[in-house]
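Anyone able to model this chain together with adenosine-5'-diphosphate?
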Amino acid sequence: EVLISLSDISKTYIMGEVKVEALKATSLEIYQGELLVILGPSGSGKSTLLNLIGGIDTPTSGQMLFGKALLSNGREKDLTRYRRQEVGFVFQFYNLIADLTAAENVALAAELVAEPLAVDDVLRDVNLWERRDHFPSQLSGGEQQRVAIARAMVKSPRLLLCDEPTGALDFETGKMVLRLLRDIQKNQASTVIIVTHNTAIADIADRVLRMRSGSVAEIIINENPLPPE
Ligand code: ADP
Ligand code: ADP
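re: yes, here you go
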């Protein structure tokens, strides 16, 4: 079942005289419940594609559907609702609020949606119950990323978007975070999209999309995705 479809979506950044075609007319369907990994070198348009899918950014042209709803209708209100209710974001550098505790960071996100999960349950799911009253500066990178994942998951989003989620973590910690993301995809039937330049992460994906110079160079279907050990 198709969750999101992009038709001829493009994004051009204009800086004075300079135009950057970050994404060239791209068509793509994203399926309910899949784990999609987006690979490609730096500057190939991965983050641009992810930000468009997440409604953080709007396309220069083209059409984007969420289920049957048209997201590329130019109405900021619809896009904001979609981004808040349906999408969870996980970033490389966690983007936690420094003067809120782990639990408060998660609770703040819960306030944005109509039917959040219980903050305590989500903190237990990411194995951070004991650390719930710690501030980000008192947590390791892996723990901070787990808070960020909890903050995304408390909204019970249809779509979890992760931009280099292991980019700031050591190898073992990164694997733990990937395992958690895979568990979320499997257990909550969430659609998970991971942007990375780490080709090793492709092994856990249902599909791998390779970007090159603002275009989708290829899509590979992985019949037997491997668990991250
Ligand atoms: P990736 O995530 O693969 O590294 P990006 O999507 O971040 O690639 O960038 C694609 C291209 O768009 C690059 O040339 C980048 O410099 C440019 N770009 C990205 N964001 C902006 C922006 N806000 N303003 C101007 N150019 C941008
Ligand atoms: P990059 O990976 O391209 O260096 P980030 O992953 O930090 O950058 O952010 C990607 C995009 O998401 C940026 O356009 C940024 O403005 C936006 N962004 C960053 N943090 C948040 C947040 N907490 N909520 C919503 N959007 C955010």
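The CA atoms of residues 101 and 107 lie 10 Å apart.
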